[in-house]
Predict the structure.
Amino acid sequence: MGAGAALVAAGLSLGVMAPANAASVVTIGVTDALGNPMSGNIKSYRRDGAGVFQPWTTYYVDNTGLFQETISDGVYKFAFATETYTEFYKDKTDLATADVVTVAGGTPVTSTWTVDQPYVVGSVTNAAGKPLAGASIAMWDAASGDSVGDTFYADAKGVFKAPSQSAPVKLGFYDDGYAFEYYNDKGNFETADPVAPSPTQADLGRVVLTAGGTISGQVTSDAGAPLEFVRVTADGVYDYTDKNGVYTIKNVTMGNRRVRFSDPIGEYSAEYYNNTPDYSAATLVPVGADQAVGGINANLTPLPADTTKTVEVSGTVKDSTGVPVVGAYVTANSTPAYDGDRRSVEGVYSNRQGVYAFTELEKVQGENQFKVHASSNEQGDDNAFDLFGSWFGGMQNHEASPVVTVTPGTPVGAVDFVLDRAGGIAGSVTGAAGTALVADVDVYGANDGLLATDGVTFKADSTFESRSLRPGTYKIRFDDIAGLHAGEWWKDKYKVDDAVVVTVKAGQMTGGLNAALGTQLIATERPEIEGYPWVGKVITADSGVWNLQTGTDFNYEWFVGSTVVGKGDAFTPSAAHIGDRLTLRVTAENGRLINSASSAPSVKIGYQPKIKVKVKGSKASLKIKASPVKAKKVKGKVIVKVKDDGTVKYKKVAKTKIKKGKGTVSLSKLKKGKHKLVFFFTGKGKVGSNEEAKKVKVKR
């Protein structure tokens, strides 16, 4: 008896015997309460021999929301987890109450799962209603203050949707140029309004950010001398004092603020307002909503000079006009054989006379040769133009900079720097009706077309400026990040070749670079039908020139009257179209912008005429064939034009009629010399149109 017969005799079947490690496909579709597919992790727990559910495997569910895995036989429980929320299958809060899923015998398991992921939604704008694209949104647990999830950012329309936890949260909002605030218009966590996230989205509506308050004052020495380049901070926002010791901290959040004065150069001791080095003893400065608070002054005490340090390398830092640069950051860099081993080994600030000195280079092991770099990323004057960093010797790159060799006991002087001053541009970008929009301004080199800056600084009133451009010539491009307006080049130009060149000079602002962007795609040059429409011959579409070309998709439709007879960028007329005129309609689409434009009507469709021209004396003989039309039925007219100075401009010089495929025309109007003639033929009946170029030399 064989093995199969023995099984049958025992009452078992080969077809139903389960393998030792059977498995089944488990499929679960995961959505949120609004029906959107969810991504996250599904954690599985498998029941062991003691009946306890132990962690088994974690699976990732991608943006489709589809969980589909082959799982070995057993009894399971599942949990779906995002960064902010965990739910057990199915709609349970913990492992103990979670529903059991049995996987057995290769039987597929299929289910759906609505996860009640809570959300907080809303939009962020300024007071004028301008969407603040990229505004950051942070959440904290309302009770503990612990952070909830990652920071989220508003989209191009200022809209945000932040996954959250079930318990109440508090939210904070910030964008460059605006004051940080807690919801709802609160200055600190304690007074912030708690929000209850919801699976159906807790909607905060429009959150409006303002520039906030300001704190200003003057910093002097104990002797009353104004101190430049003192850093003044107020709970995260700061400013540097100018040459008169004056500062203004902007974008200050409402509330009681602790103000600190410190000297990056290291010549004066730090203190808090009002004249104390002790954090806890500081006098807090009350700032109301958008309030300007002045008179927060300080006088700093000089620090004693460190007589134990020896100057090893020194020099000055000045701008291109010879003015000392206060607070320039100067670094000494090692010079290893392998460039990847290069390190900054000492960094110091230039003092209030523009002088710097290195005193720690002797500590550097195995090196006595250095390359020195100076930069000035912070300046006390808010209206100052940027200074470009430089390697010693006036070089822009490390390799070309001269080496500075340090010998113990022999100070090296006159390692001096002159930092070039930038120029700037200023203007505004709005919609056509002056509406606020989320704009982008890019600056390109006029000669090489390379991007010269990665952006400009916008203010709440839609004006912008940049103070960091190298002197030179540029072309300026304006765009709407949200894609609701068509971009353009200054001024009102749509092609980069037509863009007006802007000249930027050192230490000067080039203003008046204003743009009002339209909300439509516009064909600045209408579409065209390329070629004559002949039966059985392909003609092609020219989309024309549009005010926004880059990234624009074009769709083509061919019309006879109001009837669409073809689609695509090419069309082949048939005999059924003889005598009709074609019109090409082009639909342009770029993001949210869409519009259409049409060509001029074509000449009438017909069979292709072939033209032969023979010039003798002052006459031209023409013979025209248009197969399959018989010669005796070939009729039409010919207009002769001459190219004007070799351009595409034509002047009419003669005309004639064609009968039975033949005709003559007088060229007596031509002057002595060489001419480039074009014979334009317009057929009748079934005969189409064509042209023939001919070079003619007239002897008089």
In short: The domain at 610-698 is CATH 2.60.40 (Immunoglobulin-like). Residues 3-9 form the longest helix (7 residues). The longest strand covers residues 673-683. The two ends are 119 Å apart (CA to CA).
